[in-house]
Structure formats: C-alpha cells, structure tokens
C-alpha cells in the first residue's frame, strides 16, 4: 500500500512539474532601443546612386551595437544594383529581408529589425 501511495505521489509531482513549472523553450526577443544611423550614398549601376538612411531595432538584451557593420552590409547588398530593381517595392522588401538576415549573422541576434528612414534614388 505504501509503494502505491509513493508511486501515485511521484506521478502527481511529475505531472505538476510538466504542466506548471516546465520551461517553455527559448523566448522571443523583446524590442529595445532603436538606433538611427547616418544616411549613406551607395553607387548603383548606370551612374545612379541610392541615398539610404537606416535605423536598427535592437533587442533588450543587445550589447553595445556599432552601426558600421550595418552600413557595410547595406553597401554590399545594394551596390551595383539597377535603379529599377531598387525602386520596385517588392524587390526593396526582398532586399530589406536580405539585409536583416545579414545583420542577424553579424550582430548575433542583437538586431531584430531594420527600418529605412531615407530611401532616395537618382
């Protein structure tokens, strides 16, 4: 009888831990400070250029971030593209996602979003 009681108590304790105390996996990063960056000019193909201003949405757990890596990534992604591609809204959103993925890699998860604050082609 004592063994059955201990067994029932152990099952109840395990079920309680599973439903109430079990860790719920990695939590989604929370938005922190928005870090504006100075606008840069990027050379496009055909003698055109893009003036690009950005702001980085950092996470609350972000360490001190330096915008130089974001600017370098933007230059690498946008340089040499045709002005028609850069001005196409669908292509622009694809380029933003590509930039976000590159910044995820470079900043090790400290940057969760990129906002274009200036986007002018000539």
TrEMBL record:
Topology relative to the membrane: Single-pass membrane protein
Subcellular location field: Cell membrane
Family annotation (InterPro entries): FliL
Lineage top rank: taxon: Bacteria
Chief subcellular location: membrane
Keywords: Cell membrane, Cell projection, Chemotaxis, Cilium, Flagellar rotation, Flagellum, Membrane, Transmembrane, Transmembrane helix
UniProt family annotation: Belongs to the FliL family.
Function: Controls the rotational direction of flagella during chemotaxis.
Name the UniProt record assigns to this protein: Flagellar protein FliL
Organism of origin: Nocardioides aromaticivorans
């Amino acid at each position: 009888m004592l063994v059955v009681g201990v067994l029932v108590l152990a099952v109840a304790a395990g079920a309680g831990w599973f439903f109430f105390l079990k860790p719920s996996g990695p939590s989604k990063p929370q938005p922190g400070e928005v870090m504006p960056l100075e606008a840069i000019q990027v050379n496009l193909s055909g003698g055109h250029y893009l003036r690009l201003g950005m702001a980085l949405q950092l996470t609350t757990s972000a360490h001190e971030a330096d915008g130089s890596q974001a600017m370098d990534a933007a230059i690498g992604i946008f340089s040499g593209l045709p002005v028609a591609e850069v001005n196409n809204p669908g292509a622009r959103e694809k380029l933003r996602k590509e930039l976000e993925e590159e910044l995820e890699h470079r900043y090790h998860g400290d940057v969760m979003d990129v906002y274009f604050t200036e986007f002018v082609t000539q």
